[in-house]
Design brief:
Length: 92
């Protein structure tokens, strides 16, 4: 869906903007988990009434969801489990 809106060079744009994520040490599944943890902090901020802070934190957590698939494709680490994990964590 994003590729249809932003163009098919979306992966290249992400790779150029965040090159430090494409080292072999960074596992795409870890990025998915980090994104959920960050988003949960954003949910906590919302619950405390800090709506602007919560929105910024949730958006930051969403960045991890954007890049985990790109990192997996670039590193050749696309797996069925990774896709399942990503889609499951998207529901959180």
């Amino acid at each position: 869906m994003l590729k249809a809106r932003l163009g098919y060079d979306f992966d290249d744009r992400i790779a150029r903007a965040l090159p430090f994520l494409f080292h072999e040490r960074v596992h795409p599944n870890a990025l998915s988990l980090i994104g959920v943890v960050v988003s949960l902090f954003g949910a906590w901020a919302f619950a405390e009434g800090a709506f602007r802070l919560g929105a910024v934190i949730v958006l930051f957590g969403g960045v991890f969801d954007l890049v985990d698939g790109v990192v997996a494709r670039r590193q050749g680490r696309v797996t069925t489990f990774g896709g399942f994990l990503d889609s499951s964590l998207d529901r959180v």
